[in-house]
Amino acid sequence: MLKRYSIIENKIVETASAHSPIYVFICPDEKEKKFLVDEFKLDEHTLNSATDPDELSRLEFEPNHTALIFKRPQNYSGAQQFFFKVTSTGLFLFSDKLIVVIDEDILLFEGKQLSKVTSLQELALKLIYRSIFHFLEHLKIINVISDELEKKINAAMENSYLINLFSLEKSLVYYLNSISSNGVLFGKLKNSAAKIGFSTEEIEFLDDMLIENSQCLRQADIYSNILASLMDARASIVGNNLNVLMKTLNIITIGIMVPTFVVSAFSMNVQIPLSSHPFAFWIIMSFASGSVAALTFVWKRKKW
Description:
Beta Polymerase, domain 2; seven-stranded mixed β-sheet; rod-shaped
């Protein structure tokens, strides 16, 4: 699907003009890919990399444009079972045009970061910059989910909560790799700023992006280390909860067995004492109750 945009009064506005400077291709099909390759001379491999979630961020210079592949978080849905995925986005920057290739239909130009845009170069940088904040937002969500799962683990024995934590930990590994990959891209952009044609303000903005990405990487690393170090402890909690339950069940079982043994002994089909006593039933019940009381006393005395 193709959407066209223009920069009007420093804002990104969707238009229907075929001469719009901004093209956004959402999940391009084979026909659209062929159009991009034939019309704009995009490298076919680089174009396919723009929608490949396993592709690393990179910068490539072609004869008539600059190609940028960067990583961003994929929109999360509850069906993913606490697994936060990452995906790739491609920016193809020409002197008078910017082509964006993305694998899902999202509000690409919404948000404070894109409220004011003066050039295509600045727009390309701000699209990448927005991905940093997207990562930060997801990291906050992961931290909140982790705290909630930790509380549930402390009071439950189910493996599902541990599996959810494992999914979060796996997500953070992918996030760390993606954020680090973006950092390499930012470094290459800074080194090639003159070749791309960035202005002084855009170079300063690129420096800010490097700092923000570094902080984002540090935060993801902290969350990842915390989850990794506590997984064993949380697994031990589940095991301890199981031991407590088994102990409770043993207490109940023994508590039932003792009076049952007394009653069974006096109900054997042989000659036994008290068989002709008029209060035999109540005497036997007293013995059973006494055995329970004695067991309870010993249990508390031994602090079992």
